[in-house]
Specification:
159 residues; Pnp Oxidase, Chain A; 6-stranded antiparallel β-barrel; 4 helices; 33% helix
Length: 159
């Protein structure tokens, strides 16, 4: 049953990401949904997941609840291994650096998050693990790209 539930959740997540990208997040979506893209810690492939976020002081906070499972979500394990991530909000795509908050830091945010999305309280009661809050800070540099001008190759950094 857990295998079937996991496969169904992954399929629904993929459909959600597809329609979110198709519409730029407009439609029947919560306005605080983003698409998080991480690099798989084993294969190096990129994976994207739609997630609820809470923005505070210019940083995004996402919750690694995995629906109240005792296992952490794969995306959380991926960003622990490689904290450089991409986030899509609406039509915008930006680079961020992820950091799991300490228990003390998370405690100050948890009540604010529960006011906005009480479902996370249920998830916390369903599991024996402490559900981590991950903070995403804007990346200092965007992806490097190569630009060719007049046959001369130079590198520029997007900000």
């Amino acid at each position: 049953m857990n295998l079937l539930r996991g496969k169904l959740a992954n399929w629904l997540s993929g459909q959600h990401a597809f329609f979110y990208r198709l519409t730029g997040g407009l439609g029947p979506f919560d306005r605080n949904i983003c698409i998080l893209t991480t690099r798989d810690r084993k294969t190096g492939r990129e994976f994207s997941k739609p997630l609820w976020y809470y923005e505070r002081r210019g940083r995004l906070n996402i919750i690694a609840s995995n629906g109240g499972s005792d296992q952490p979500p794969a995306w959380h394990l991926n960003l622990v291994a490689d904290p450089e991530v991409q986030v899509e909000i609406g039509w915008s795509r930006k680079r961020y650096r992820a950091r799991t908050l300490s228990d003390e830091e998370a405690e100050t945010l948890w009540s604010e998050i529960l006011k906005r999305n009480p479902l996370y309280g249920l998830y916390q009661r369903m599991t024996s693990r402490r559900i981590p809050i991950v903070q995403l800070a804007p990346g200092r540099r965007q992806a490097r790209r190569t630009v060719r001008e007049s046959g001369v190759e130079r590198h520029s950094e997007e900000r």
